[in-house]
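[User]
If only I could read C-alpha cells as easily as an amino acid sequence. I have put the entry right below:
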Amino acid sequence: MSERGRVIAAHGRQYVVERDDGSSLPCFPRGKKSEVACGDWVDFAPTGADQGVIEAIAPRRSLLYRSNEIRQKLIAANVDQIVLVVATEPGFSDELVSRAIAAAESEDIAILIVLNKCDLAAGLPAARERLAVFAALGYPVLELCARDHAEDLRPWLRGKTSVLVGQSGMGKSTLVNALMPEAGAATREISAALDSGKHTTTHACLYHLDADSHLIDSPGLQEFGLGHLDRHEVEHAFRELRPLLGRCRFRDCRHDREPDCAVRAALQDGGIDGRRLAAYHRIVAELA
C-alpha cells in the first residue's frame, strides 16, 4: 500500500521520506535513474520495517537545479524562495550569484541575497559594492552576522519553503543552527537513516521552522551550470535585459557585435552593468 510523503533529505540515490505522522523512512527510487529532489512530494511504499521504495513523484510547482553538458544536479523542489548566502570573507563569486539568480528566475522562484559575516568590517565595503548591482535590480540584500543576528532572517522565511544556496564557507549551516538549535540533532538522525556518516553539508536537508515555514540546507557549491536553459530563456532570466528584448535591429541579436543593439547601447549609457553582461555572454557561450 503506497503512501504520500515529503523528501526531507537527499544524498546520492538515498532519500529520507517524512510521513504524515512525522516519522521518516529511508527510501530508494525504482530503477537506476533517480530524478528525486529534497522537497519533493512522493508516493512511496515500505519494503521492510526500515526501508521503502519511491514509486512516483508528485507534480512540482518549482525545481531548482544546475546542469552542465554531462549531468544535472537537483538542488530542491517545491521551493518558494532561494536564499543566496554570500559573506564578507572568504571572497564570493558574483557570477555564481548571477547564475543562481538566473536558475531561480527561470522557475519563478523569489530571490533573497544574504550578506553574512558583517561583523568582519574590513571586507564589508567591498562586499557591499559587489552586491550593489543586484540591489539596483530590485533583489533584496539582507546584511547580518549568522552567529549573532540570524533572527533577522526569520521574517523573510515565514510562510515559505526556502532553500539556502551558496559557496562553501559562506555560513549556511551556521545560519541553520542559529535559527534551529535542534538542527544538529535532526541532521545526525538523517545521517544515521542514510547511513552516510557524512557532515551535514554533503546532502540536502529540509527543516521545519514552524508548521508553514520550511528551510532546505543544500551542499556548498563552486559552480552553477545552466545547460538546461536555452539562450532566450537566459535572456529572460536576466531581469535588466527583458525591457530591451525585441528592440535590437536584428531579431536574433546576440548582443555582442551586431549594429544597433539595444543591449549594447544600454551598456554604453550605463543602464546595464558590464559584469552582468559579461556573465550573460559566458553562460550563452557555454550553451553553444
Summary: The mean pLDDT is 92. The first strand starts at residue 3 and ends at 11. DSSP finds nine helices and 13 strands in the chain.
